[in-house]
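agent> call fold_tool(seq_1)
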Amino acid sequence: MLTITNHTLEKLEMLLKTTGYKVRYEKGNFKTGACLLQHSKIIVVNKFSGLESKILALSELARDLEMDYNLLDDKQVAFHQQLQQIKLEL
């Protein structure tokens, strides 16, 4: 289970940024916490969402995206694998 802290949010952001995704926080009428813009590596997160919503949205996207483990360090690989396990438990 992920802890709902700013540190967890930062780890998710760094994981995505390391693999080439740009995470942006914007205002808007989002129904969910985040979205992946079609055919680009930009993730837009509703800046008015709570911390838990941001973490859940980014973790869901990170689980579903193809990750090149060659770009990640050992801690990031372990974190991504932890995210994959959380998906299996749900």
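agent> call fold_tool(seq_2)
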Amino acid sequence: MAKGMTKTALVRHLAEKLELTNKQSAAFLDLLAETAVKETKKNGEFTIPGIGKLVKAERKARLGRNPQTGETIKIKAKTVVKFRVAKVAKDTIAPAKK
């Protein structure tokens, strides 16, 4: 099974396509990631057009089960981050079968 594109490979690809240095394209990727984290934390969501959206969501407290013992346990409420893939990306990568 082939491994996905690494950060180094992505930096090189961006540098080549946009005629930038590797350092400039790496700085761009780092800034994009930093901005996505800050905006998601601050506003609850961050959209990358054509790719998807990071969304901050609250999970309620609930009862769960310990799979080893079967004992019922309480799971605390917590904040999680979800990624929602844009429809354009989803339809391009995995088109619906007709």
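agent> summarizing second result for user.
The chain is about 40% helix and 30% strand. The chain has two domains: 1-39, 44-98.
agent> awaiting next instruction.
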